[in-house]
Input
Amino acid sequence: MSTVPSTWKEIYRNEKGAVYQCDTTCRLILEFWDTHTAFSARDFLQFKRMVETVDLRQMALHTDDAYDVEILTPPRTDRCYVLTLCEIVQLRDLLNGARLMLELNSLLRERGCCLA
Output
């Protein structure tokens, strides 16, 4: 993966990418396929829901070419992802892991804990 600015804090990483938080711009940055896409918190959750709605079972069971890939366009970006079944699974893991870590961090802050 590429070098990231020092203002970005890694939220979650898997073998295909990472999600960072930038406190300077109040954005979440998705690193996937060696590209970076910045999201507001709302857009990040909307994109996560978009990825979750892809019917993996239907993609896996159909042999038609139309089911080989899914095209996803994140909100308020000029990026377009053309993803295979395996890539969607990896992206889901990345987004779910990041969401879980953000929720955990929020919970810890509510309880008065401080993460380094």
In short: The chain has a mean pLDDT of 90. The first strand starts at residue 8 and ends at 14.
